[in-house]
Amino acid sequence: MSATTSSPFASVIEKHIPNLKTYEELYKHFHRNPEISTIEHDTSARIATELKTLNEKHGSPIEIKTNIGKTGLIGIHRNGPGPTILLRADIDGLPIQEKTGLDYASTKTQLDTHLDNVEKPTMHACGHDFHITCLLASIETLLGCTDSWSGTLIYLFQPAEERGCGARMMIDDGLYDLSRHGCPEPDLCLGQHVFPFRAGTVHTRAGSTMSAADSYRITIHGRGGHGSMPHYCVDPVVIASHVVVRLQTLVSREVPPDETAVVTVGSLKAGDTVNVIADVAILQVNIRSISQTWRRVLLDGLKRIVNAECEAGRSPKPAEFEKLNEFPLCYNDEEVTKKVQKTFDSHFGSEHMPDMKPVLGSEDFPLLGSSIGKPYMFWFWGGVDPEEWDRRVKEETLNELPVNHSPFFAPCINPTLRTGVEAMVVGALGFVQKDTN
């Protein structure tokens, strides 16, 4: 039990939280069977089955809507007058080969029919299997304590977070169109993410919490020819190399030292053999920022630098910019965050960390609120075994922990599962709990 004795939610959770042994097995099922973004058909079907089972146990209070944005689904739980709160979990895995050695490790491969029709190893390397399982267990807890709260809860299972398109796919498919899916607009949205922090802890922050991310594929044109005759050619590799180096000055010389930003050139490809100057060089660039002001500076600087280096290198035609994906800045609403932090303080006590630093990872979760002008709040909870965490603190080896997207990423099941369930339940009840005065 992670709650403090002063928590107004402790008795509700103790009475109604389900036997988590069942959910441990469900978690292992999802971990063994990850699916790549936009093609999470089996995952979505299993979630729908779990929701139907919960309905059978509790008299069918949840209205289930499937196939929203292809593989997204929601459960609408109306329980009297009050605010409408959306609780979100993402459901997709990653094209990574798992190397954890767990007895429930994924050995699955999947044909990525959405992207390139290539068979890929697949892994839940970002904890979305935990997100699914914790939300399902939270739903069962909330179903058991309906006399303690009043309002409407929307349980949303979102596809394709890893590619930054799942929230938009659901919204564009009429998520909030009552005539289409029957889903009311929420008053606010809540979400959470497991992270390489000490298990049992919950971490929050008001304001800028996760970075915006903008990714581009940039094609730089040259004039190819024999490696022995560079004076007859325009070498796009040289131009691209200058671009790579010059882009680093965006952070070091154009963004203030007390701001946070990252510019990464993830790949540079040109040519196929040693003695040929290529026609084109292709860069893939990722830019992360935690303010809209400096996001604009970085994006403007990207195009300025690429175009200037192409001109300096006598490129025969302008560079081409292809937007690969875009993640919004995650800016937690101040008032909503204060309320969540107050409830987390009362429930988790010293295990709640309300002053976490911004995370340079990115999420499309904010779109679920910002697209309709509603507030949202996103928090993190730990998944590193406490004994391992404490040992690494002493050894000063925390930087060697496997992190999200690592083939070795493996959050411990306990107490990670229970903490994730309690955080989601407490976060929701903080807005819909009945006044007991």
UniProtKB/TrEMBL annotation:
Protein name from the UniProt record: Uncharacterized protein
Organism: Neophaeococcomyces mojaviensis
